[in-house]
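Today's session is about reading a structure prediction critically. Students often jump straight to the picture, but the first step is always the sequence itself: look for stretches that repeat, for charged clusters, for runs of hydrophobic residues. Only then move on to the predicted structure, which in these notes is written as discrete structure tokens rather than atom positions. Here is the chain we will use throughout the hour.
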Amino acid sequence: MTGITVILTLLLALMTLAPISTHPAWWIRVWDFPRLQILALALLTLLLNLLFVPLSSPLNWGMMAVDLACAIYQAVWIFPYTRLAKPQVVDFTGYRQRPRIRILVSNVLTTNRRADKLLALVAAERPDVLVAVETDRWWEDQLAVLEQDYPYTLKCPQDNLYGMHVYSRFRIGDAEIQYLVDETIPSMHMMVHLPQGPQVRLHCVHPMPPSPTENDESEDRDAELVMVGKSVAKSEYPVIVTGDLNDVAWSTTTRLFLKVSGLLDPRRGRGMFSTFHAGYPFLRWPLDHVFHSDDFVLGSLRRLTDVGSDHFPIMVELVYAPRQGEQQESLEKHREDEALAQEKLGATDSTPEEVHTPGG
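Below is the predicted structure for this chain, in token form.
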């Protein structure tokens, strides 16, 4: 048993130390994702050491110290995404009707052929805007029936797992499909006109993840998020950024995005709402996101039912209440954050000015 716990403790130390580096290699960045699972493994290894390894052994005390340190370190990262933390976005209160927008985000999985499940979900939930990613021409044909109720659309079918479609009840304008970092990876940028409410800048993104099968490094993903984040930072309009970011809510990159953009994450203080992987309950993390400016407060946030994909859809209702939203605080940006943002942009020779600015 001592040999097993030694191996587990060494693995825990490596998995915990690796993502401290800002190196973009996939085999380093991948350990940003399973922090909850690493925390659970650290606690299990600590328990094994307590139960089966003699406490008289100095080696055991050293291993338990490492296990405990790993558990605490991982807990610090995920703590903001538990109900123990203070919510970053406040719940809407009051009886007065306010303009609002309900957005359903779903990575459909290109090879998934259960479009009926997504259509049934849309019929039941009746979102104002549907953002579907990984959509190809087949999915476009299946979702065409939505256009009776969702007459405003933006479509980019692709066969490379990076297609994207937006269907909206609300009028959209000044829309543009862009390929910000990679000529095969689209993003969508548009103005959504809320009835009896403001115009809202909506940015939909789905950058490529760092993985051995797609991109050896995270540079493209990181740069795209920083580009969009800096682009919306000084927006005169309310802002929403959504999509499958292929990054977890607690990663260095997503935190950097929130710092440079000034946007808020309704997950913080409410839970992880893990959307991937739908097929493996013990290997899930939050990849699909909705971030917004402080013009909005939260009506509701839910992870929805399975639609046959490897992602669960997520649904958010945002209420336009800028006076109530003034009390919300974004993450504080420091000098080193700006330096890291510039490093991310420099790695791909990208600039925020390349991002389409709806509303000019």
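Discussion point for the tutorial: The two ends are 64 Å apart (CA to CA).
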